[in-house]
Amino acid sequence: MMDGVNQMILSFDYPPATRGIVVVWGMLASHPFGGMTWQALHYLVGLRRLGFDVWYAEDTDNELLDPINLWNTSDYSANVRYLAKYMDSVGLGNRWIFRPPGVQDMCLGARDLVGLAQLYKEADVVINLCGYHFLRSEHETIDCLIYLQTDPTIDQVKVAKNDTQKIEQLDAYRYLFTYGENIGAPDCLVPVEQYQWYPTRPPVCLDWWATDSLPSSEAVLTTISTWKNFDNHIEWQGENYYWLKDREFRRFIDLPTKSRLPLALALDGIGAQEEVEMVDRGWRIVSARALSDPIAYRNYICASLGEFTVTKDQYVRPRTGWFSDRSACYLAAGRPVITQETGFSKFLPTGKGLFAFNTMEDILAAVDAIESDYEGNCRAAREIASEYFAAEKVIGSLMERAGL
Fold first, then answer.
1. Residues 353 and 282 in one domain
2. Suppose 109 and one of 61, 88, 97, 317 were both cysteines; which one would form an S-S bond, judging by CB atoms 3.0 to 4.6 Å apart?
3. What is the CATH number of the domain that holds 298?
4. Backbone phi, psi, residue 137, to 5°
5. Cα–Cα dist 152/177, whole Å
6. 184 and 217 share a domain?
7. Which residues pair with 339 in a beta bridge?
8. Whether residues 68 and 131 fall in one domain
9. β pairing state of 239-241 and 125-129
10. CA–CA separation, 330 vs 317, rounded Å?
11. Same structural domain for residues 238 and 274?
């Protein structure tokens, strides 16, 4: 089995595109790093494998990050090359359009502005992945818009607080989907007002993550994360819900001194003093910047013993049922996952291959279970990915519920 992009170049064999035109809006060019790239490609290829004529477009004035240093940039040339490379890699090199931010009179790729406008008129649906694109007057001709929320809680709270800008935005969509699978359930604290939110979860193209062998004897439990996220906290009914990973990692900072398996974190945004503190507690720290390349990101996951990770408070305490697209990739690679409980265990099997935790004791029990039957946990992880995260199943369900 070949790895990464080379495997994708050789392996796609799409059916006839007879099921309608789908445009996906995403962040592949504007945020050109591992996790965001795989997220977009899983949707695009999943749709194409289902027989849809799928197009990818970035038609937004949001910021661009340079593919090398991930700093804000106004020079979009490298971003366009990045986009073209990965669209070519999955056989969709003639199905992308990029309008540079702030530029209103031209776009790059397979169509010009007139062609893009015509595509919007022809499309059976436009999917706003991550809700990243803000609607403009040029989008009024789109017949069916789908809002695909990958980060639950904030939108729902804004609606409950009667945020008129958010309500006006969501009113334009025919369907609202969310990774918060537990939203609307009695045990979920996220308010649901005005709109119906349909549950979904991250899709994975299983063949891209298949591995032929177990990791080496030097492998450790890993994850890939931003240590300190931007300020995106929200208050609801007197409670502050935080958008911070470091806050959650610190709750379990002594884990390496108790765990029978070694732990490593690939982090971005951690300060030198904080890194020293983590290393002193037994954590192995590497730079996540080295994994901004999608193939390096994939290889890091596949070489891992499994994943140990925490989850943002904004998903955990309200019991949203959220599950990480990165963790889904670990499962698809046959790597067991230990992750913080958000309520997802109501929808996914846990106890072998996938473990949900609330306490340090839960984590240590999961580590012991993995160590005692590693190969069995690897098989279970892959089986969970196949049954619950396969792109054709996840996206097929989404499209069916959207009438397509």
1. yes
2. 97
3. 3.40.50.2000
4. -60, -30
5. 10
6. no
7. 309, 356
8. yes
9. unpaired
10. 24
11. yes
Nearest Cα to 395, choosing from 177, 134, 182?
Answer: 177
Q: Identify whether residues 149 and 198 lie together within a single domain.
A: yes
Over range 92-118, report the average pLDDT. 96
The token pair at 20 is 């309608």
pLDDT value at residue 5: 46
Looking at the predicted structure, is the pLDDT value of residue 104 above 50?
yes
For the record, the structure tokens of 55 come out as: 């197009």
Specify the pLDDT at position 212.
86
**pLDDT, tens digit (0-9, with 9 covering 90-100), for 228-257:** 877 789 999 999 999 989 999 999 999 999
Domain residue limits at 259: 206-388
Residue 95 has φ and ψ, to the nearest 5°, of -135, 40
pLDDT tens per residue, range 49-66: 999 999 999 999 999 999
- One domain, residues 249 and 198: no
CATH number of 37's domain: 3.40.50
User: Do 181 and 281 belong together in one domain?
Assistant: no
Mean pLDDT of 138-155: 97
> What are the structure tokens assigned to 354, written together?
């996938």
In this predicted model, what pLDDT tens digit does every residue of 177-218 receive, in sequence order?
999 999 999 999 999 999 999 999 999 999 999 998 899 999
Number of domains within the chain: 2
Residues 180 and 267 in one domain: no
User: What is the CA 35 to chain-centroid distance, rounded?
Assistant: 6
At residue 11, the pLDDT reads 59
Q: Which amino acid is at 19?
A: R
How many other C-beta atoms lie within 10 A of the C-beta of residue 140? Answer: 9
